[in-house]
Specification:
mainly alpha, 11 helices
């Protein structure tokens, strides 16, 4: 159906009795139809046609209205989608800014200096960054020696250089060299003296709480260290049993930290795996046996060489 260009409601019925429509009336004239009757016929046809055009016009107006509503709906939908996308983009940018400038966004309470602030320990920036990324870090940094090293580095450090490193989201970021560089002379957990180990634990737990670790993880690690110190190996006179306990601690904690971001996740580290601990002890025991056997063989060899040189 052709689209109407004008509103038929505005049209007036012509005067078909006028001379202008003589040619239109002529085909209708016959002995039974005169000019007046032919004009009536033409008027009837025009009115019927105009009524049909009015109906078509109204349908066209209604369709145009529906199309306009649909077009507006689509425009509104597109505008809403752009608004949502912009909001999400703004949220992502704000979150990235918050991560980059987290230290600037931490609220500072309006209060006097708390008592615990006087007892605060200065931990190496490298160790704190490891904790913030939920990564394994040696307990050495919380021993008396490690804290002393951190204080010395803080007072004498003048290295303001920046180095690239991977952020928590995997993206490259630039940090101070002191943050990216481990301390020199770090002692592995398995070689720590029991006294240094026991001194480091409460400081380490306190730092976890201060760095915003969840209560569940802090409690899990606290129970883990507590279970180690309640184990029979902790008070044993057998040096290898104590070494096995410290080695087990280091290996399990390192594996636990590595498992946190993995699909299968970590586990309740405070539950001591007796089988694994025994396996660690056996490994250390056999390594010690091999070392002592080698020392014995070397002594015998040196003795034989000394005897041969005397003859």
């Amino acid at each position: 159906m052709n689209r109407l260009a004008t509103d038929p409601n505005l049209q007036q019925c012509p005067d078909f009795t006028s001379d202008a429509f003589q040619a239109s009336r002529a085909p209708l004239l016959n002995p039974a139809v005169d000019n007046a009757q032919a004009a009536v016929i033409l008027q009837t046809i025009w009115l019927a046609t105009n009524s049909a055009l009015k109906i078509q016009w109204q349908e066209q107006v209604d369709a145009d209205g529906l199309e306009a509503v649909e077009q507006q709906r689509l425009l509104d939908h597109e505008a809403e989608q752009r608004r949502i996308e912009q909001k999400l983009q703004d949220a992502v940018i704000a979150e990235e800014d918050r991560k980059k400038n987290r230290i600037h966004l931490i609220a500072i309470p309006d209060r006097p200096r708390p008592k615990w602030a006087a007892e605060e320990v200065l931990v190496a920036d490298f160790a704190l960054r490891k904790l913030d990324k939920a990564q394994f870090v040696e307990l050495y940094y919380w021993t008396n020696k490690g804290l002393a090293d951190a204080r010395t580095s803080f007072r004498t450090g003048d290295d303001d250089s920046m180095v690239p490193t991977a952020g928590a989201d995997g993206a490259a970021t630039w940090v101070s060299a002191s943050v990216a560089r481990p301390a020199t002379g770090v002692i592995p957990d398995r070689l720590l003296a029991p006294l240094d180990f026991s001194r480091a634990i409460p400081r380490f737990i306190a730092t976890l709480e201060q760095r915003g670790w969840s209560n569940m993880r802090v409690l899990m690690l606290a129970n883990f260290f507590g279970a180690l110190m309640l184990h029979k190996y902790w008070t044993s006179d057998n040096v290898l049993e104590m070494q096995a306990l410290l080695t087990y601690q280091e290996e399990q904690r390192r594996a636990w930290h590595q498992a946190i971001p993995q699909p299968l996740g970590a586990w309740n580290i405070s539950i001591i795996d007796g089988v694994e601990l025994s396996s660690v002890y056996d490994r250390i025991y056999h390594a010690e046996r091999e070392r002592t056997n080698l020392e014995y063989d070397l002594k015998v060899l040196f003795s034989l060489l000394s005897l041969s040189n005397t003859h």
